[in-house]
Amino acid sequence: MTHRVAVRPSGVELEVLDDEDLFTAAQRLGYRWPTVCGGKGTCRTCFVQVEEGAENCSPVGPLEREGIEALRRPVDGLTRLACRLRVEGPVTVTKRGVRRRVQE
After folding, report:
1. How many angstroms separate the most distant Cα atoms in the chain?
2. For 16-66, how does the pLDDT look when each residue is reduced to its tens digit (9 = 90+)?
3. What element of type H or E holds 65?
4. Which of 21, 31, 81, 93 has CA atoms 20 to 30 A from the CA of 53?
5. DSSP secondary structure letters along 2-26
6. What global pTM score does this model have?
7. Phi-psi region of 11 (alpha: psi -120 to 50; beta: other; left: phi over 0)
8. What's the CA gap between 27 and 67, in Å, rounded?
9. What share of the chain is helix, strand, coil (3-state, %, to 5)?
């Protein structure tokens, strides 16, 4: 089963698989997502702001909590790390810099 995640302001719509995080789904679908660590949960560059559908997001785990706190953001379920975020329904997030990877 897939779940739709809309990414603002780019207008990208991603179909995220069950048990797949948002970052991995974007890569699978050919999108470049800002990161330094490549999805390991340590750089915090991939963070998103959840605009709609927070109730469809996975709980914040310990590594993600540590990252959000390091960003000096509240751990309220609205700031999330894309490499840790799994969804179970439609979600809208804001993340600048998400774009289609250039084919070489």
Report:
1. 40
2. 999 999 999 999 999 999 999 999 999 999 999 999 999 999 999 999 999
3. helix 62-70
4. 31
5. EEEEEEETTTEEEEEETT-BHHHHH
6. 0.94
7. left
8. 21
9. 20, 35, 50
Per the structure block, which two tokens stand in for 87?
A: 């969804």
E-state strands within the chain = 2-8, 12-17, 31-32, 47-52, 79-81, 91-94, 99-100
Residue 90, C-beta contacts closer than 8 angstroms, at least 6 positions apart: 3, 4, 5, 6, 52, 53, 56
Least Cα distance to 90 among 1, 10, 6 occurs for: 6
Q: Which residues of 66-104 are buried (b: 16+ CB within 10 A; e: fewer)?
A: bbbeeeeeeeeeebbbbbbbbbeeebbbebeebeeeeee
Three-state secondary structure call for residue 50: strand
Contact 40, 83 (CB under 8 A): yes
Residue 104 confidence class, pLDDT cut points 50, 70, 90: low
Asked if 5 and 89 touch (Cβ cutoff 8 Å), the reply is no
